[in-house]
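Q&A log
Question type: sequence-to-structure
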Amino acid sequence: MKYYSYFPGCSAESTAKGLGLSVLAIAKPLDMELIELEDWTCCGSTPYGSLDELEAIVVAARNLALAEKTGLDLVTPCSSCFVTLYGANLRLKQPPQLMGQVNEALAVINLEYHGEVRVRHLMEVLFNDITPEVIEAKVVSGLAGLKVAPYYGCQMVRPDYGFDDPENPQILDRIVESLGGEAVPYPLKNRCCGGSLIISEEGLALGLIRKLLENAVENGAQCLTTPCPLCQTNLDAYQSKVNSKFKTNYNLPVLFITQLIGLALGLDPASLGLNTNIVSPSRVINHVLMAKFYAKQKG
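Response status: OK
Response body:
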């Protein structure tokens, strides 16, 4: 069993419940103990950092200080939380005066940070600690024949965090293949989905979402998969608006990679939060069930 301090992030408990549920569901079968960070708060989020960098780093550092007490790596499934916590951690290790300013603020709540935490994205943990080989060995309902477009988004691999190629990332592709699925060629795999622009510049964001959906369909994808809660929301919840604006007819399920892993591990779809997805994932679920049935018949 591998032990980690776990930072769910706000999205995993609100707009992306499917992510939060599926992460916890697959942890035990993969011999991971995710110990939720006690009294964690919002990471500070990337927009906050553009308003007041010092305050944003203090907000992130509070979580880092709590994680440091555990002596464990701090793991998050949210790409935005990862960028925020990793970035704050990196900044705190550079100019010593910044660490002093941050600890002066943390002292008010009897906390202190020494820069000893290792911040990690869940995908990197699944790839390097658990490994695709171990995941493959635990598959009971493979994704055989399922064509999947692996969508990384902007944040997980850029800038270069050292665990994947920022221009041609492969972690998601390898994990999809370990589940028995086919990772289709997807040239736009690391392009922007529009992010939070869906609120302020909806028309621009919808255009970006359309390009991603179109590229996936052109390459034969039956579904998209992503680790990022904001990307999943944009691609899933806004398909109907894309169809309305551009007179298209996309109906492409967008699953969190942890939901796909859970299906392949034979877990109940409800436990993976698949009922919270907007575009129905029933085709994917039925595909997995049929693949399991035919595998039994051959066996």
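Response note: The radius of gyration is 19 Å.
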